[in-house]
Amino acid sequence: MNLLNDFRNAKLARKLSAAIADAVGDRTFSIMEVCGGQTHTIYKYKLREMLPPNLRLVSGPGCPVCVTPIEYIDKAVFLGLEEGASIFTFGDLMRVPGTTMSLEKAVAEGADVQPVYSPFQSLEFAKANPCQQVVFLGIGFETTLPGIGLVILEAQKAGVENFSVLLSAKRVPPVLEALLSSGSAEIAGFITPGHVTSIIGTKAYDALCCTYNVPMVVGGFEPLDLLGAILDLVRELAGERSGNLNAYKRAVSWEGNVKAQRVIDEVFIEKDDELRGLGMIPKAGYGIREAFAQFDADRRFEIVTDSHEPKGCICGEILCGIKGPSDCPMFGKACTPDSPVGSCMVSAEGACNAAFLYKD
User: Is there a single domain that holds both residue 56 and residue 71?
Assistant: First the structure.
């Protein structure tokens, strides 16, 4: 699908494309779209074809399924098969390969794994089945965390004793800082994720822009949203500025969602955490506070795993912006959406999945 074939948007798209080319000129820039949803829009609408060749778009680590360590999948499989817990999860986690199997394959081995749209569905099941241990797989960035926090608060209020959360929640700003401090991907600027920033606010990036002298622009998810964000970003780069801009004002503000932030602060605590491809990053994740320890599956169960990444998979380098999907020798051959080797091919927000579906 090409945006220029859509008569409703073609005129504005051409105008934005020309303005981007004019701002870039003969300079060369590499910019990163952080969010996997943005990556899929870029591939689906072939936005790269509308940009000058000296402007490189790099896919980032904003896909929550992709950055979740393989050990987390192994823990969930262990809880389902060895502990006999009923596992509730967002659907895109079902097919992510673990060291020995995915959750989907664990179902075939007898595990009770149920995809849901809301963590509250798992809590309702726990209330209705008080003799059955129920574990919700709480993964994601700041976008999903308020909902997970609210379900933990409700579980405490209702006195539910058979419910817990296996948490793997990440924070976007420390992840961006890890990329910037490593310098391995040579990123000149970032399109920051609209949905995450609607929670944390653009204020969350102020220090990064200042410390690393790098511009950031919050972008939405429609093609024109992204072209507008790219234009703002390359204008900052061309002017050698490092502004923290907002091209998604209909959903994002400087202060963010204060009520959601209060829930996060009440239930969770920042901690050092591991991300696939980036390793252990200071303050990059969240843990469940001691006051809610009974709802922490890592505390409730003695979980045993022996985890290791699949040989040949370069998901980690793709998530860091060092390599692209086509650089992987398994891409489209041994690794496809029907038979994925790595998480980047499984998730609906994964870069490899997007590149395969839209034939990059």
Answer: no
Phi-psi region of 300 (alpha: psi -120 to 50; beta: other; left: phi over 0): alpha
Measure the CA–CA gap between 182 and 176, rounded to whole angstroms: 10
Question: Which residues are within 8 A (CB) of 164 and not within 5 positions of it... i.e. 6 or more apart?
Answer: 133, 134, 135, 136, 294, 295, 296, 297, 300, 301
Residue with tokens 């040579």: 186
Confirm whether 274 is domain-assigned. Answer: yes
Q: What is the 3-state secondary structure (H, E, C) of 311-329?
A: CCCCHHHHHCCCCCHHHCC
Question: Which domain, by its residues, includes 57?
Answer: 3-62+173-246
Q: Is residue 12 part of a domain?
A: yes
Per-residue model confidence as pLDDT tens digits over 5-48 = 554 578 888 999 999 999 999 999 999 999 989 999 999 999 99
Residues 57 and 167 in one domain: no
**Amino acid letter at 115?**
P
pTM: 0.91
Which residue reads 């005129």 in tokens? 11
The DSSP bridge partners found for residue 280 are 274
Q: What are the pLDDT digits (tens) for 191-220?
A: 999 999 999 999 999 999 999 999 999 999
Q: Would residue 309 count as lying in a domain?
A: no
Q: How would you classify the pairing of strands 268-275 and 279-288?
A: antiparallel
